[in-house]
Amino acid sequence: MRLSLYHRLSLSLLVVFIVIISVFFVWAEHLEQTTRYESEQHLHLSLAASLARDNPLLQKGAYDHQALKNLFHTLMVLGPAFEFYFVDPNGVILTHSITPSLIKRNRIDLKPLIQLTQNQASLPIYGDDPQHENRKKIFSAAPVFNGSELIGYLYVIVTGERYESAYSRLDSDRQAELSMVMLVGALVFLFIVMLGIFYYFTRPLRCLIRDIQLLKNAGFDKSSLKLTPWMPNSSNEVHQLGIAFEEMVNQINGQLNLLQQSDVKRRELLADISHDLRTPLSSLQGYIEMIAHKGNELTAQEREKHINTVLKNTLQLKLLIDQIFELTHLEGGQVTLNFETFNLAELLYDIMAKFNLQTRAKNIDISIKPSSSYTQVYSDIAKLERVISNLLENAIRHTSENGKIDLIIEELNDNQCRLTIKDNGTGIKADELSYIFDTRYRASNAIQDKNKHTGLGLAITKKLLELLKSDIKVQSTLGEGTAFSFNLRRVIP
């Protein structure tokens, strides 16, 4: 079974709490035992001294060890919590009140006895337990003198073996009951508090998971969903994740909208292109069928006329297909750019010569201003030539006979130059200027034009300039002319 983050956090905190409770109980047990030993030792601190002072045998120097042993046995019967020992000045046990077989050591360390009798250390002070090789216990002690000679020490263990056994049984039962009650109470309290805390801290994460699931079920369309509002600039990592998720959703929806708009435009483009393809194809089919069926009946003049019409429609069809492929290639983003430095005026003169026949046919005056320019630009010369050719061809098409076209080079102050193609042709309506770069849009001046063209030239021009990191601008007045301009990177020698 897979546990959620909420459950994993709860179990982790529970384990940590149990460890803390265990450490606390061990520490409390040690503190309680130390406190108990200190109080008992303090309570019986003068016990050995009182026995040594009040007992005749000890007052005489404990010369009769058997009698002293009998005395110890009698005292132990009266006080089973005590163990009585008499040791010599070297710590050797001379007599005692317990069964000889229980003795594990015959000598004890006198240092704790001296510390206790001379108040050289704070309580509790632990002395050797003769019934165990390493165990220490609290005690009461008093020196025994024969005249002025020290003959030994009365060594009384306050908490004897019988006392410890009885106390341990009772204390273990009490501690078990107390520990169980405290543990159960602490666990219940912890469980309730833990559920509340983790519910509060994991609630944003659950909301985020809910939003993700809702968005997935809605096909990643958030328009019909009410997602959780997240706090910006929050230090909470989940809120930061929520903000990132919200930005991602907006990005996905923006891309989906662009894809939908692109799909709509693609459908419209296919419909328009189908219509444009159908027209020359139908014309081609009609004239070819006429030539095929009435070839012998047609005069040479009629045959030549029909063939010229077929050729014209073929060229129009080829131009349309070429522009469709070019636009598709540009929109695919797989165009290679070759930037280089060249003279802009020289490129303009080359392009102007290419359109010499068209301008002479309409007696259009085309000029470059200034006529001698040394402006160097850094760009892709082939792509820039395509842009200028499209704009110049468009200007020639919409300029009447005896009209004028200017190619204007302006050097700007910020390592930029501006190229403007300006004509005094038919112009464009103000409400149509924002649409002229859309694919397949044909302005009213283009519709009135008798010459057929595809309407993709300005769309291709805009795409090419975007690749060259430039933006095209247009100014036009109906009946007075149009000016297209864009900036290029100027190279300063």
Automatic annotation (TrEMBL):
The keyword Kinase applies. It catalyses: ATP + protein L-histidine = ADP + protein N-phospho-L-histidine. Pfam families: HATPase_c, HisKA. Keywords: Kinase, Membrane, Phosphoprotein, Transferase, Transmembrane, Transmembrane helix, Two-component regulatory system. Residues 272-492 form the Histidine kinase domain. The chain crosses the membrane at residues 6-28, 138-158, 178-201. GO terms for molecular function: phosphorelay sensor kinase activity. One of its GO terms (cellular component) is plasma membrane. Its EC number is 2.7.13.3. This is histidine kinase. The lineage of its organism: Bacteria, Pseudomonadati, Pseudomonadota, Gammaproteobacteria, Alteromonadales.
